[in-house]
Amino acid sequence: xxxIQTTEPSTKFSPKGExxxxxVYSSSAHVRYIDRIKNDIEKSLENKGFRIVYLKDEARDLxxxxxxxxxxxxxxxxxxxxxxxxxxxVLFEFGVLRGLEKPIVLLKxxxxxxxxRTLYGDVSNNDDCRKKTGLTTPEFDNLRNPLLEMxxxxxxSDISISISEFDKEVIEGGxxxxxxxxxxxxxxxRTEIEKEGEKILRGKAPASISGRFVxxxxxxxxxxxxxxxxxxxxxxxxxxxxxxxxxxxxxxGNKMPSRIYSLIASLYGLAREREEKDDS
Length: 280
Known about the structure:
Layout: E1 19-24, H1 34-47, E2 50-52, H2 62-74, E3 78-82, H3 88-99, E4 104-109, H4 126-133, H5 137-141, E5 163-166, H6 178-188, H7 190-203, H8 212-228, H9 235-252, H10 258-279
Parallel strand pairs: 1-2, 1-3, 3-4, 4-5
Helix pairs in contact: 1-6, 7-8, 8-9, 8-10, 9-10
């Protein structure tokens, strides 16, 4: 497993956003340029108010890998999948996100390959090479990884997800830069992401909340996620939704989920950041 950090939502306030998403990619051992692409994507997601959630180091253990990934994926509102390398973990994680019906953005470099060479592991000596691959070391050294062309991804054609092809050599701001393509794709599926966020928060409603308070909670959640994607976000709007949730908490006698207040806190950060930009 090629992930780090934590499976749990961060307890540290992030002024950039609290919309959890997951980033699926091959490691630099299999795709040499991936760190640069990953960094560009991370910055782009952060600027759009998303918080990337990673798996813990111990989740590299195959015995807990699938369970841990499932836990992370269930609470995410978006999955971003970099197909370069076409590694088994990438395909597995894409399948999990697809099975959970999560909004997904699929990306690949125009010269991405299916890295079959690293599937063989260590073939440093000739005996190992012949035993594992059926090839001599010189023959294996000349083995080329096939290009990951659109027809290689034909198995995705029946699930209504298009693959955006970026160019890793294009400078930031260019039409084929990964950040620009990612941003454009997120804008296209904004409604799906909003609905996924609402669904997750609705599922986290206090267990004992009932009657008209349930309807009020759902209405507030819908407004909250609408604000999370609003281009005209104002501090007064955030004040209003905070007041409504606090009133609901008082009247119903139920504490609201901590994620509600984390998202509201991040909205304050975004609103004030926009105010500062407008004033400058």
